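Course exercise 7: structure representation. Students receive a sequence record and must write out the corresponding structure in token form. The form below is the worked example handed out in class, using DUF4440 domain-containing protein (128 residues). Read each field label carefully; the graders check that inputs and outputs are placed in the correct fields and that the protein name is recorded exactly as given.

STUDENT ID: A-19
EXERCISE PROTEIN: DUF4440 domain-containing protein
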Amino acid sequence: MPENARTAQARDAVDAWVAAEEAGDTAALGAMLTEDFAGIGPHGFQLDRERWLNRYDSGSLVNEVFTADENAVRRYGAETAIANGVLAQRATYCGRPVPGRFRFTAALVADGHLWRIANLQLSPIPKN
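STUDENT ANSWER:
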């Protein structure tokens, strides 16, 4: 497969992740995250795969809006890609509003013809 097609697949995987997060679709998210996934939230907390998914399964996190732009994907060989972009979120966590804009970095690894997310880091973007 040409290199640019694999990069496009990694970019598509990021788009699918954003859509699944917005929908709170844990079945889709579960398929996208590696078994040893680590997610680092905007306030420094770290969640493993089970706890990341449980935010939605428990009803604690509800996204009204979850979008990404400024997405860039860089590939490193056939099996690794790094994605960066900006997330905009309007959500509630345990009934409290948690809106924000965040820079994200996602480490993706090839799993056959699919790309899966092994690590995710969110950093808040201060308001001007």
